[in-house]
């Protein structure tokens, strides 16, 4: 048994804790611990017990995953998916599998084989009814397979309707555009009709591509409608094929807006498309192909009105009524100093490249003629002309260079002259100009310009979908049309959650890009600390807390209400 023993050493009392046990039937001191003098013992007692030393700690990402999960729950994303794709039997629903995939696209896009490892590294492991052994690539693919392509538009409709109501979106202006994404699907894979060879907007001509069309809000580029289509389809026929879908989506979202103005670019222009827009409930702002309207390009600068007073620095505008595809429209000829400067710099760089090519070709032919080059194949007129044609194939180059290739002394001879008059005409008529047309005749010049410039939101949405660190439609690890369609849908939902996150924080004064916001939120971590058992035979104690937050992280934590997902820190173990 234990006892307290006092010893006097050099006239001072000292205390020891002594444990005695019987060994072979005789009492024996088996341990003795020095406690110190009485005043020191009292001081230690008043200071409280020494905290136990933690055995180990597990750190998980908390801030970004729970912020996006909060928004997904406000959208009732899982419920909308499960209503259209019900699942019989036990285990996580299709909606929960898709939610895990959507959150993964937002934070750590990759193959489904790495989904379980990422999931366990986040707070989602305790917040969602999923376990890592249920997130194998095969089980995920099995649940993807349950989603028919025909169900995706209905699911999207319900989610978009919930989003417009829950978040009170500004729907006065919506933006439409389409682009394509390259894939690594094998050329001889005949199971996909979506992946086709066509004009790759990323210059990957050797790869099969898929097309994605988006209708987004000007209010933080939130997707309202998307369609996945074969990559070899041009934009204008696609717009016409989606006309009925766009009209239905208008009816579903327009309750909160008096009018909805559709903004689209010149790639969607055709008589059929504009006839549909005329009959549709949408108002519209579009752009014209400048070179098809030389009379508008001929408008001189002194006929244009400055928009400086409207806050549009460096911009001038000329407004007129003009016939577009047989209908009188309000047309704006806009000249933008910044656009003019950028186009001039780009063209001057391309002009200099052609000059260098042509000079080098002249010098090479001169060396052949002087006999300084004797080996190799002798250049011919046809091959030289073909080479020059390749250099001048770029836009405007044939107008800016007068090149003559003729035969002289059995060798081709090249003469060229830069057309300075053509360059001045190009600067005077085309460069820096944009042609807009609209049925919104009551809008001011500045409102129309700002309305069309909002088109950058949909372009920004496509850039976000191509971001390899966040969302990343490509590379996609699927090669059947159904799986490709579900994968693109997950990426569009990820774009929606990221846009809502940016919108919610911006409304409270936290303004930054989506990658920067997610990076800051990732820094908020959940820490599980395991302490040894207090007494022999009892279980170790697990306590959870959050990592230290900076001022901006604390502000985002409070704005988004993340405390509802946090395990409240407990007092330190005694």
According to CATH, the fold-level topology of the domain at 150-328 and 440-479 is Transposase Inhibitor Protein From Tn5, Chain A, domain 1
Derived from helix and strand composition plus strand pairing, the structural class reads alpha+beta
How many E-type strands? 17
Helix content: 40-55%
Shape: elongated
Q: Let me know the average pLDDT.
A: 86
- What is the CATH class designation of the domain at 150-328 and 440-479? Alpha Beta
Strand content: 15-25%
* Largest sheet, spatial ordering of strands: 7-6-5-8-9-15-12-11-10
Biggest sheet layout: 9 strands, mixed
Poorly predicted ranges: 569-574
Question: Can you tell me about this structure?
Answer:
With 574 residues, this protein is of the alpha+beta class. Among the domains are: 2-47, no CATH class; 150-328 and 440-479, Transposase Inhibitor Protein From Tn5, Chain A, domain 1 (Alpha-Beta Complex); 340-429, no CATH class. The protein has helices at 38-47, 63-75, 77-84, 94-107, 115-120, 124-127, 137-145, 152-166, 235-241, 243-253, 271-279, 294-297, 337-369, 381-391, 397-400, 420-429, 445-453, 456-465, 481-507, 514-522, 551-559; strands at 2-9, 12-23, 26-36, 56-61, 173-182, 209-217, 223-230, 261-263, 283-288, 305-306, 315-324, 327-336, 401-408, 411-418, 433-438, 525-531, 541-546. A 9-stranded mixed β-sheet has the order 7-6-5-8-9-15-12-11-10, sandwiched between helices. A hairpin with a 2-residue loop joins strand 13 (401-408) and strand 14. The longest helix has 33 residues, at 337-369.
């Amino acid at each position: 048994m234990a006892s307290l023993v006092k010893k006097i050493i050099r006239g001072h009392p000292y205390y020891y804790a002594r444990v005695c046990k019987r060994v072979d039937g005789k009492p024996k001191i088996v341990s003795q611990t020095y406690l110190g003098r009485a005043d020191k013992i009292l001081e230690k007692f008043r200071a409280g017990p020494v905290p136990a030393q933690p055995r180990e700690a597990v750190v998980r990402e908390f801030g970004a995953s729970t912020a996006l999960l909060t928004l997904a729950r406000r959208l009732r994303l899982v419920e909308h998916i499960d209503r259209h794709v019900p699942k019989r039997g036990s285990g996580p629903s299709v909606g929960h599998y898709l939610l895990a995939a959507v959150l993964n696209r937002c934070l750590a896009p990759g193959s489904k084989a790495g989904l379980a490892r990422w999931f366990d590294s986040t707070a989602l492991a305790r917040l969602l009814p999923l376990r890592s052994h249920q997130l194998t690539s095969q089980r995920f693919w099995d649940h993807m397979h349950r989603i028919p392509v025909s169900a995706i538009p209905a699911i999207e409709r319900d989610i978009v309707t919930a989003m417009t109501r829950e978040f009170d979106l500004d729907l006065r202006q919506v933006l439409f555009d389409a682009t394509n994404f390259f894939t690594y699907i094998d050329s001889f894979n005949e199971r996909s009709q979506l992946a086709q060879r066509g004009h790759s907007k990323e210059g990957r001509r050797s790869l099969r591509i898929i097309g994605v069309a988006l209708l987004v809000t000007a209010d933080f580029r939130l997707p309202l409608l998307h369609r996945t289509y074969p990559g070899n389809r041009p934009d204008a026929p696609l717009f016409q094929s989606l006309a009925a879908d766009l009209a239905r989506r208008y009816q579903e979202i327009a309750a909160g807006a008096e009018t909805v103005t559709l903004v689209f670019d010149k790639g969607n222009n055709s008589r059929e498309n504009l006839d549909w827009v005329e009959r549709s409930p949408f108002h519209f702002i579009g752009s014209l192909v400048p070179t098809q309207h030389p009379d508008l390009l001929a408008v001189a600068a002194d006929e244009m009105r400055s928009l400086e007073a409207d806050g549009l620095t460096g911009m001038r505008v000329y407004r007129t009524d003009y016939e577009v595809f047989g209908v009188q429209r309000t047309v704006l000829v806009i000249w933008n100093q910044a656009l003019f400067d950028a186009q001039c710099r780009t063209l001057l760089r391309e002009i200099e490249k052609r000059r260098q090519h042509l000079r080098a070709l002249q010098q090479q032919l001169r060396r052949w003629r002087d006999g300084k080059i004797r080996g190799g194949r002798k250049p011919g007129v046809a091959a030289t002309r073909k080479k020059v044609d390749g250099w001048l194939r770029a836009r405007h180059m044939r107008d800016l260079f007068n090149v003559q290739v003729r035969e002289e002394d059995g060798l081709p001879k090249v003469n060229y002259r830069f057309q300075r008059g053509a360059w001045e005409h190009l600067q005077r008529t085309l460069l820096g100009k944009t042609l807009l047309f609209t049925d919104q005749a009551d809008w001011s010049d500045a409102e129309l310009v700002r309305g069309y410039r909002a088109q950058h939101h949909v372009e920004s949405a496509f850039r976000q979908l191509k971001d390899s660190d966040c969302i990343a439609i490509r590379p996609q690890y699927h090669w059947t049309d159904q799986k490709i369609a579900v994968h693109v849908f997950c990426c569009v939902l990820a774009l929606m959650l990221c846009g809502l996150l940016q919108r919610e924080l911006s409304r409270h004064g936290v303004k930054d890009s989506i990658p920067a916001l997610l990076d800051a939120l990732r820094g908020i971590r959940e820490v599980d600390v395991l302490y040894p058992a207090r007494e022999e035979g009892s279980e170790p104690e697990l306590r959870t807390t959050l990592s230290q937050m900076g001022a901006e992280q604390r502000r985002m934590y409070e704005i988004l209400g993340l405390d509802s997902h946090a395990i409240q820190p407990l007092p330190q173990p005694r």
